[in-house]
Amino acid sequence: MGMQKLIGVALLVVGLVLLYFGWQSTQSLGGEVSEAMTGRFDDETMMYLIGGAAATVVGLVMVVFKR
Q1: DSSP, res 40
Q2: What is the mean pLDDT of the chain?
């Protein structure tokens, strides 16, 4: 396995973990109350979701496509 694929797998795993934590944060009592009051998630939750999605996409591209 090349170095690029290894980094891609690591980014994919980190991205999925961040997405999981972001999803858990949206389901928490504080997250639900914050969303009900403001209509959006708090900044920490959004960072988990955006960072997780970005890392997952980049990791997937690195694993699937060769350079």
Answers
A1: S
A2: 88
